[in-house]
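Q: Sequence in, structure out?
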Amino acid sequence: MKETAKKTSYGVGIQNWILIFSIICAINFALGTWKYKNVSDRFICPSEYIELFIHYIRSHFRSFILLLLCVVLQSILSVIIEKSLIYNYVSESAGLACHLINSLLPTNFALASSYLVYIDPCTLFFVMVHVIHITFLRGISYAFVNSRLRKEWRECIKENAYNKKETKNVYPQNINIRDSLRFWFGAPSGTYKPEVPSRIITLNLSWLGVGLVKAVIFTYISLNILHVFVAPAVEECVQYIEKGVLSEALGCFLRLLIPVNLLWLIGVYYFGLVTITGTWSKVVGYRSSKQKDWWNSETVSEYWTKWNYFVHEWYKETIFIPLVKSGISSQSANVAIFAFSGLLHVFFVSIGLYN
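A: Exactly. Output:
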C-alpha cells in the first residue's frame, strides 16, 4: 500500500501478485507438462504468432472496416434521431424505438456476418463483447440521457426560464455530429455525460505505441495458455464426459481452474481493463481515474461496484436510478440489473460459440 499527500491509500500490489502467481503457475505447468506431454507440439513460437496475426488481419480486415463504418453511421443516425425529436418530427415513443433499433445496428451487422461468413469463435466472441459494450450500451445511454435533458429543456421553455448562459442543461447544443463522434470514439466511459467539458482529442503516439506493444505481448501469452493448457484439458474433459467417467471429468475441470484464472488475469484484466482502456484514455486525453482498486474490496458488493467501474456506472445511471425513482425497491432494481446483464452475457457467448 502507498499513501498520497492527501492520506488516501490505493493498492499497488496487484501487479506483483499477478507476476508471482504467473511464475508459480508457469513452473508448475512446465514441470507437469514436460513430464507427461510434449509442450513443443502445441507451443506457438513468435514466428507462428506473426503469421497467424497477418492471416487474421487479412481474413477479417474487410469485416472490421465495415463494422467501423457501421459504428460511424450509428453515431450519425443518433444525431438525426435527436434532431427529429427536437423539432417534433417524430413522437417520443417513436424516437426511443428508433434509438433502440439504431443501437443494435453494429450488433446486427456482426450477427449477420457470423451467419454469412465463417468467423472463428474467439474472434466472434471478442467482437460481440466489444460491440455490445461500446455501441449498444452507448446508444442506449445517449438516448436515455438526451431524453431526460429534453424534458427538462421543454419544461424550462414552457416556464420561460431557459437561459443558455445560466442553465446547466446543455441540451440541445450538445446534439451535433462532433459531440456524438467524440462520445462513441473518444470517451472510455459508456455513460453519456454531455455536461462534462469536451476535450480536444489529441493522439498521444507514445502511449499508443506502448499500448500496442503490451497488447501484442498479452495476446501472445494468452494464446499460448489457451492452446497449450486449456484446449487439451477441455478435449480430455469432453472425452471423459462422453465415456461417462464423471469423476475424471471433474478432475479435468478442477485442473482447468488455474489456467483459466491465469488467462482471465492476463487476457481480460491486463489486456482489456488495463491495456486497452488505459491506453485509450491516455491516447485521447481522458483520465482513467475511475478505475477502482477492486482487489482491496472487503465485501462482495464493494467488489462488484469496483472491479468493472465503467459497466457498473452504466447500469447504475441507466437502469438502477430510473427504476428507484419510479418507485421500485432497490432490491428489485438490482435483480433487474443482474437479469439484464445475464441476458447480454448469454447473448454474446452463445453467438460467439455459434460456429
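The radius of gyration is 23 Å.
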